[in-house]
């Protein structure tokens, strides 16, 4: 399977966070996770972020790393790295983590810069503020990484970061909100 960097036409770097994630995956295996990306999805699901769920997820409830071993900031950035496999729907999970404000925004910006995930987060922020221009975390990300150029190929359409607002038990297609 191709990496996100291959589709976007960018280089990826050797990441200390990626090594940490691989080590945690070895220490806290999930039987259904065939690769690191599926393991990160399983961990995000375990932490209550379920906008995307692994289709292979089983009923097992293993011990997984606690936030003091791997923070939500690191998990979100780990899923935004260009060395990840090219699974666009996976990017919905870090967007949900950010939209829910389940992070320390300053720490996220620091980790994203260290791990060179700014362009992906900048692009996600551009899509997210189409839905909620006042969302303080997305606004901070957008302002902090405003000078990062976009990609020639879109990483995700804004509707993948949103859900339609229901009205009278029916989908009200005229209004959307960030998935949180």
- Which whole number gives the mean pLDDT? 87
Distance between the termini: 29 Å
Number of strands: 2
**SS-based class:** mainly alpha
Strand order of the largest sheet: 1-2
Summed up:
The chain is mainly α. It is built from 8 helices and 2 strands, in the order ααααααααββ.
Structure write-up:
The chain is mainly α and 180 residues long. The protein has helices at 4-8, 16-27, 36-46, 72-79, 92-99, 105-114, 118-131, 136-144, and strands at 162-167, 170-178. The protein has a two-stranded antiparallel sheet. A hairpin with a 2-residue loop joins strand 1 and strand 2 (170-178). It is globular.
Chain-wise SSE layout:
Elements: H1 4-8, H2 16-27, H3 36-46, H4 72-79, H5 92-99, H6 105-114, H7 118-131, H8 136-144, E1 162-167, E2 170-178
Antiparallel strand pairs: 1-2
Helix pairs in contact: 4-5, 4-6, 7-8
Keywords summarizing the entry:
mainly alpha, 180 residues, 2 strands
């Amino acid at each position: 399977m191709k990496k996100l960097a291959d589709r976007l036409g960018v280089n990826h770097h050797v990441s200390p966070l990626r090594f940490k994630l691989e080590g945690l995956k070895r220490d806290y295996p999930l039987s259904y996770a065939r690769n690191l990306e599926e393991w990160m999805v399983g961990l995000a699901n375990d932490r209550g972020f379920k906008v995307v769920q692994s289709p292979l997820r089983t009923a097992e409830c293993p011990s997984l790393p606690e936030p003091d071993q791997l923070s939500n900031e690191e998990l979100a950035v780990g899923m935004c790295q260009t060395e990840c496999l090219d699974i666009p729907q996976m990017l919905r999970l870090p967007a949900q983590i950010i939209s829910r404000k389940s992070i320390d925004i300053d720490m996220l910006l620091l980790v994203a810069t260290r791990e060179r995930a700014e362009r992906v987060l900048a692009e996600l922020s551009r899509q997210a503020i189409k839905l909620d221009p006042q969302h303080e975390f997305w606004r901070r990300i957008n302002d902090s990484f405003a000078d990062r150029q976009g990609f020639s190929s879109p990483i995700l359409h804004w509707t993948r970061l949103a859900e339609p607002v229901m009205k009278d038990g029916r989908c009200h297609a005229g209004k959307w909100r960030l998935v949180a």
